[in-house]
User: What shape does this take?
Amino acid sequence: MKDQLATLADRSRFDEVIDVRTPAEYAEDHIPGALNAPVLSNEERVIVGTRYKQNPFEATRMGAAMVARNLARHLDTLFADRPHTWRPLVYCWRGGKRSGAMTAWMNLIGWRARQLEGGYKAYRHWVLAELARLPGQLQLVVLSGNTGCGKTRLLQAIAAQGGQILDLEALARHRGSLLGAWPDATQPSQKGFDSALAAALQGLDLARPVFIEAESKRIGLVQLPGTLMDALRQGQVVEVEASLGDRVDYLCQDYAHLFSQAEIFKRQLARLTELHGKEEITRWQAMVDRAAMPELFEALIVRHYDPAYRRSGARLLPAGARRITIAPNGSLEQTAQDLLAQQGQHSA
Assistant: This one.
């Protein structure tokens, strides 16, 4: 019913957002903060979909029974403590039968539930529209520099001093390099990353500079939107420098976990064989076996990371960009304060 529909623009008026899609659909992407209350499990959705091709009526009857059982379970568990004044916004894939069934029952109970018009697909269209619209409006200050020079640490120090940042590697849960996978987290799906990025962009003050690390198009398995890559190329560049010793120390801290997974680490290094040759890779793998951490990371900096940066940096950064060279080998806090002062920003 039309009076039970709400749009994305209305979602702040609701107490909670309920995603009734399957756990697999929810895991791939969902509206940030939404609670998953599936009316069909992953397996049930496959069963109903397969039966529907053979007998639509029987599939609908079977699906309705499954939905009813799952609804009853959610009412007894997930929603058992919700007050009578509760206002949930419910969505499924297209705003169809699954969310319609949940919304109808909630309203019969007495809650003031509404169904999201267009469902997840409407939300996904909004995300893509925001990713097309917002990056071009940002005043970006781009922290560039070789691997291990402390860009991420400087970015975090800027945030601690009251600066506004966009931490793409945190959103992607990956450091961006061959060895950049986080030890305790998997990357989001592309759609999940897009959602997180759109939410982060929504939270920025467009009137203030935004500090960001220079990134290539791909961070691990996810890709940045073309509009953000264009904005990165047009931003003011801050070239971050650090001594070779500091860079080795930073990499030893950031990638120490790799030595506890020696065989996996050596397989990752083997992916560089085409670039560096079997003899060089064998030498690096032997350093892993010896736990020669500083020796290996110095070799990777000199032989792999710096040449790769020289090849890619010129493509990412605009010609004639104004560069401010800083060396975060002393106090990162002071460096962050100085950089904010140069941008006319007050520290917190």
